[in-house]
Amino acid sequence: MNLIVLQKHDFISPNRVRLSGRQLEHITKVHRAAPGQQLRVGLLDGQIGSGEIVTLDEKCVELEVALAIDPPQPLPLTLILALPRPKMLKRVIQHLTALGVKKLVLINSYRVEKSYWQTPWLQEDKLFEQCLLGLEQAVDTQMPEILLRKRFKPFVEDELPSLSSDSRKLVAHPVGGTACPVDIKQPTTLAIGPEGGFISYEVEKLQEAGFQSVHLGPRILRVETALPVLISRLFPAF
Amino acid sequence: MNLIVLQKHDFISPNRVRLSGRQLEHITKVHRAAPGQQLRVGLLDGQIGSGEIVTLDEKCVELEVALAIDPPQPLPLTLILALPRPKMLKRVIQHLTALGVKKLVLINSYRVEKSYWQTPWLQEDKLFEQCLLGLEQAVDTQMPEILLRKRFKPFVEDELPSLSSDSRKLVAHPVGGTACPVDIKQPTTLAIGPEGGFISYEVEKLQEAGFQSVHLGPRILRVETALPVLISRLFPAF
């Protein structure tokens, strides 16, 4: 937890928050903090600054808060990702949030097992929790937006064109295509398939929607490795 | 398993291998292969090609092998990494191998807990196993070399200068320093600290050894996210 993320309901007066639970535990056990100490805090979807501990006991901590700095720049990226298996989903959401992805669409694909859509980790509060962990890690406050789209074809045909308009459109696919560009500095929509990749039909549908097929070279990477590699390659200086 | 990695002891004649265990299981259960079928194979530290199934039963499979293609290029990188916690170590070794790292030195650091060095996952056969999984994933055959160095100061003072000679020397450190360069196309030695980072003394020792401190911007990333991000940023086109 490199940032204590404050939510509106934490405020008990304009500049004072009261925290308990996981954040209190972190402040007492990891920071071993005492009244007077300054901690890095940020308001969810707002600015970052510092909070001075005013009172602290085993039930709650109160901080006097001053916010002054904007959060890091969001990536100019909309990520379209075939739903990963539940075990990987949590980690992927945290990593992507930490990397600065602000718009994520989890879609179905032929090689996504139907059962994956049943995982409780797709519930709104669970996704929020994983995103929060990513923001706390990366010292960011801007909550990503996550959309779930369980039907591939209607999504690609009806929704993707407006979602990806005015952006560069890429689909990561290990077979064929051109080498993934480097440092492109422009708004991008990037589609990434499941383990085993999109099937040909899906790549064709994406190509019909204007997506260019790009690869990462001869190595085949797991989705969780490919994601940071692709993001860093497209936007190395973010 | 995108590649079946053959070892010398698998060969029963110059062009024929006999496999059992995990590889047999993969061939029967995932490939659902039958005699006559071609599978992608590669010789450990050698070339990649194809293997045709000659015989197959519940105990073993025999393949007639033809090797023709060189494995992917290794990264021109020596990675000096503070020993991650055991839970993360396996994943990190697999990811780094899949990314093409061929030389990895796991070192001690002030913020590495002493107990981490006791994990059975540091045994030679266990490290080999994790590297093999990375090679199978990435369709590579070149086994990385992994060194363990339990004492920071003697390593940095006595061994690192020759290990890093004729290479660009970088230490990833979130505080101070300059932005990590992009697409540098030159042999590089990169040092990465533990969760929480190197302490100032350690950064200074590395700087004395010629290492330049570089950061990834305002976001603080977990080591397992920072590794692919750094590697992709330094060598996007590998």
Stretches of chain A where pLDDT falls below 50 for ≥5 residues?
none
> Largest interface by residue count?
A-B, 29 and 30 residues
Largest sheet of chain A: 7 strands, parallel
Give the helix/strand class of chain A. alpha/beta
The whole-angstrom Rg of chain A is 20 Å
Helix and strand succession of chain A? EEEHEEEEHEHEHEEEHEH
Report how far the terminal alpha carbons of chain A are from each other. Answer: 21 Å
Question: What is CATH's topology name of the largest domain in chain A?
Answer: Alpha/beta knot
What is the total number of structural domains of chain A?
2
The tally of strands of chain A reads: 13
* Secondary-structure arrangement, i.e. CATH architecture of the largest domain in chain A: 3-Layer(aba) Sandwich
Portion in helices of chain A: 25-40%
Shape of chain A: elongated
**What is the spatial order of strands in the main beta sheet of chain A?**
9-8-7-12-10-13-11
CATH top level of the largest domain in chain A?
A: Alpha Beta
Give the quaternary arrangement of the chains.
Answer: homodimer
Number of helices of chain A: 6
For the record, what is the CATH homologous superfamily label of the largest domain in chain A?
A: SPOUT methyltransferase, trefoil knot domain
> Average pLDDT of chain A, to the nearest integer?
95
Strand content of chain A: 25-35%
